[in-house]
UniProtKB/TrEMBL annotation:
Protein name: Tol-Pal system protein TolR
Gene name tied to this protein: tolR
Compartment(s) of residence: Cell inner membrane; Cell membrane
UniProt organism field: Pseudoxanthomonas broegbernensis
Lineage: Bacteria, Pseudomonadati, Pseudomonadota, Gammaproteobacteria, Lysobacterales
Principal location class: membrane
MF terms (GO), sorted A to Z: transmembrane transporter activity
HAMAP family: TolR (MF_02203)
Length: 144
């Protein structure tokens, strides 16, 4: 036997073992892939009543009303609501606002109207050249 025993020293390994991290990442990926479709469910919303004060304006506003069936009504400054289709609404409203730059334009709808129809109406009004569109509401309580 050899009186001097030579032992080999093993070098320490300085690398990070990433296998557990990859496993955790794959589990999280599967969880997110399963739960993501569940997050896009729609919910019916009843919009709250407004307690906003009335708007003080020097000019009578132009009111575009959309009903629950998607029909449009235009009320110009003479105060009479006229049934109108979308193309004629865009043309008349664009011409009226071009002549009266500072006239306020409101979009109104009954509470039973789908929100998408209100949004489509706002897009139609803005496409007619109206720079600023406001929503109109009924007073729901004591307006202060």
């Amino acid at each position: 036997m050899n009186p001097t025993i030579v032992r080999k020293r093993r070098k320490l390994k300085a690398d990070i073992n990433v296998v557990p991290y990859i496993d955790v990442m794959l589990v999280l990926l599967i969880i997110f892939m399963v739960t993501a479709p569940l997050l896009s469910l729609s919910v019916d919303v009843d919009l709250p009543q407004s307690k906003a004060r009335a708007v003080d304006s020097k000019k009578d506003p132009v009111i575009v009303t959309v009903d629950a069936d998607g029909r449009y009504f235009l009320t110009l400054q003479d105060g009479k609501a006229q049934a109108i289709d979308a193309t004629e609404l865009s043309a008349r409203l664009g011409a009226f606002v071009a002549q009266n730059k500072d006239v306020p334009v409101f979009v109104a709808a009954p509470g039973v109207t789908e929100y998408q129809k209100v949004m489509d109406t706002m897009v139609l009004v803005q496409a007619a050249g109206v720079p600023r569109v406001s929503l109109m509401s009924q007073p729901g309580g004591d307006a202060r």
